[in-house]
DUF2627 domain-containing protein (Anoxybacillus flavithermus), 84 residues
Amino acid sequence: MQRMIALLILLIPGFIAALGIKWMRDTIFYILHAPIPSLIVQFLLGLFCFLVGLGFIAGFILHRDRKRNKVQPRFQKKKRFDSE
């Protein structure tokens, strides 16, 4: 059940990133989609969607690997020392 939930959590940002790639590709071929006013705005929205989707997926994988202690030392969380 948890794997199914994790898959669903990753599918939504994956679709957002794919939509961003599609909008950037369509900008190169001068294809403008209806609700977007110009090609430059379409490219910037595509870039934003791609970066948000990719960033979410990368953060999810990093969080999972940190919990399983499978990351290099430079990616491990720093231990906080509380001074009393």
Observations:
- The chain has one domain: 2-73.
- Residues 39-67 form the longest helix (29 residues).
